[in-house]
Write a structure and sequence with these properties.
Elements: H1 2-29, H2 39-42, H3 54-66, H4 69-77, H5 82-109, H6 116-123, H7 126-157, H8 160-181, H9 187-206, E1 214-215, E2 218-219, H10 220-235, H11 244-269, H12 289-296, H13 304-312, H14 323-348, H15 353-359, H16 363-383, H17 389-425, H18 434-450, H19 465-489, H20 495-522, H21 525-559
Antiparallel strand pairs: 1-2
Helix pairs in contact: 1-5, 1-14, 3-11, 3-14, 3-17, 4-14, 4-16, 5-13, 5-14, 5-19, 6-7, 6-19, 7-10, 7-17, 7-18, 7-19, 7-21, 8-9, 8-11, 8-17, 9-11, 9-17, 10-17, 10-18, 11-14, 11-16, 11-17, 12-19, 12-20, 13-19, 14-16, 16-17, 17-18, 19-20, 19-21, 20-21
Length: 561
């Protein structure tokens, strides 16, 4: 019964947040204008800038920001108990992620689709823009490396998902061709594509595919990392209408279906929450919950990557400014529901408390196997509906792979945009060349994914997660800082972004400092260098922001006599 109450509480909190808080933000703070000419119309090129139906765009935005992160983070964080994880997801979604995603989308739309890094120049200064662009670039490298590794782990652990995922790609491209080249409304093709995908799950369950254990001296997991990063690089070169939009629209419906089945499984089976609400006997190697909870659960509560998507690709496709509330805030709400599903799967998806304790016997096991715990737990919840275990776990693993791969496409596209901005900033026009930029993005992501254990290349996986979480949250704090300064100039209620900025900045700086100390202790020198550089850049940028605000205050004071 506790699991049902947990789900109902999440539904109520998210409903109230979207119904009232997001409406207040749209009306009073952002003052959305249905007549405003968005960049999708003003700069339309049908490649990156393209007016898009808000439901289709919501599907792209949601699936791009969701990825595997709102699954991995909560699945690890329940080691401290499901209570703290749930509380942070609920409060974070309503008061942090919602306004962060909504505001970054609105600000970018109001500035011709510029990214948050580019906007930093106008708001704070050229030096701040350089710092932010470099932080964003590091974050995107981490996103791509982490998600490619997560997919590799799933393909290795659940080979039934391999065929089901790859069969989805040509189907999505077919939908894009029908909709944008044959002017067929997306409804019927999308439904057919979804039914085919469900059929592919059955095909995958009957025909599991696995790479040989060793190819040219490298394990299968390493090759999956290379394959997925190569796929992401190629997919990021395609027009958004051909693969990105139709695949994301299909995946959004797939996620709705999976979420519905997970929650219905909870209501039908009413499983016990075998995980403790507050774990008073955490394993010895588990770090302190404060501040690590707030960076372990990033996506699902607040995520800097969302601001990059909002200002990087979504703002270039927004048809009407009033659509920003639905796409931005409700996109964050959808991810919150996914994070709650991950908590339910890992807190109520085990048969007993003993089985849960064995799965979470150490921080290392929680970190390395969090995503596998979600797949198995969610598969068990689907079992309450009579779905066989092999079909249930295949279904869930295909969902996770599809979302992670979607993020790869979007993230590598964003990384190419950031490289072009860096090239413009430092007069390096070669970085604006699509071929050169794509190759650089691919090689940098492969290099980080393979850094670490030389005996197990590409499989070190979640050693990158703490660094990803802290970098992600610092990026969110910096985006909120930029929005706060813009709202202050407009003389609007900047307190609504200032408070989330201060909280996230403090918690993530604290967490990054602890991570750097841990990297020194463990001899993870490559992570130490990256983490140290990011921390210095972030603190520097925050100081630049406060200095800019102080200069503006002094100027206004002087003008007012």
């Amino acid at each position: 019964m506790e699991s049902i109450l947990l789900a109902l509480t999440a539904f109520l909190v998210f409903f109230l947040g979207y119904r009232f808080y997001s409406a207040f933000l749209a009306r009073v703070i952002f003052r959305l204008d249905p007549e405003f000419r968005t960049p999708a119309h003003e700069l339309r090129d049908n490649i990156d800038y393209m007016p898009t139906n808000k439901f289709v765009l919501w599907g792209h935005h949601f699936t791009s920001v969701a990825g595997a992160a709102p699954i991995i983070g909560p699945s690890i964080a329940v080691i401290w108990g499901w209570g703290p994880a749930l509380l942070w997801v609920l409060l974070g979604t309503v008061f942090f992620a919602g306004i962060h995603d909504f505001s970054t989308l609105w600000v970018s739309v109001r500035h011709k689709g510029e990214s948050m890094g580019s906007l930093t120049r106008a708001v704070i200064g050229p030096r701040a823009r350089s710092l932010f662009l470099l932080i964003i670039f590091f974050l995107l490298v981490l996103v791509n490396a982490v998600f490619a590794i997560a997919i590799a782990q799933l393909f290795s652990s659940f080979p039934e998902s391999v065929a089901a995922y790859w069969l989805q790609v040509p189907v999505a491209m077919g939908v894009g061709w029908l909709v944008y080249r044959r002017s067929i409304r997306i409804g019927v093709p999308a439904v057919v594509a979804l039914l085919l995908l469900l059929g592919f799950v059955g095909v995958g369950a009957m025909m599991p595919l696995a790479l040989p254990e060793q190819i040219l001296g490298l394990p299968a997991s390493a090759w999956w990392v290379v394959i997925m990063l190569g796929y992401g690089a190629l997919a990021s070169r395609l027009p958004v209408w051909l693969l990105l939009q139709p695949r994301d629209f299909i995946n959004a419906h797939l996620l709705f279906l999976v979420l519905a089945l997970i929650y219905v499984g909870v209501f039908v089976g009413a499983p016990d929450l075998v995980a403790p609400m507050f774990n008073e006997q955490v394993p010895e190697d588990t770090p302190s919950m404060l501040p690590l909870l707030f960076v372990t659960i990033a996506c699902g509560a607040i995520s800097g990557f969302h601001g990059l998507v909002s200002s990087g690709t979504t703002s270039k496709q927004l048809d009407r400014e009033t659509d920003a509330r639905f796409v931005g805030y409700f996109g964050a709400t959808g991810e919150g529901l996914l994070a709650v599903a991950a908590i339910l799967a890992t807190a109520a998806g085990f048969a007993s408390a003993g089985e849960w304790n064995q799965a979470y016997a150490s921080w290392q096991s929680a970190s390395d196997s969090g995503i596998a715990h979600f797949v198995s737990g969610a598969g068990n919840l689907l079992g309450h509906l009579g779905i066989p275990a092999v079909l249930g776990t295949t279904f869930i693993s295909v969902l996770v792979v599809a979302f992670a791969a979607t993020t790869l496409d979007t993230s590598m596209r964003l990384q190419r945009f950031i490289l072009a901005e860096i090239g413009t900033q430092y007069r390096m026009p070669a970085l604006g060349n699509r071929n050169i930029a794509t190759a650089f993005v691919f090689l940098s992501c492969v290099a980080l994914a393979f850094a670490g254990d030389p005996d197990n290349p590409g499989a070190g996986g979640m050693v990158l997660w703490p660094l990803f979480g802290t970098t992600n949250q610092l990026t969110a704090a910096l985006s909120l800082l930029v929005v706060t300064l813009i709202l202050k100039r407009l003389k609007r209620g900047f307190i609504y972004t200032l408070i989330p900025f201060l909280f996230i900045a403090v918690m993530t700086t604290w967490a990054m400092t602890l991570n750097i100390a841990s990297f020194v202790e463990q001899g993870e020198w490559h992570l130490l260098i990256i983490g140290g550089v990011i921390l210095v850049f972030a603190v520097w940028l925050i100081l630049e922001g406060f200095a800019a605000a102080h200069r503006e205050w002094r100027q206004r004071r002087a003008e007012n006599g």
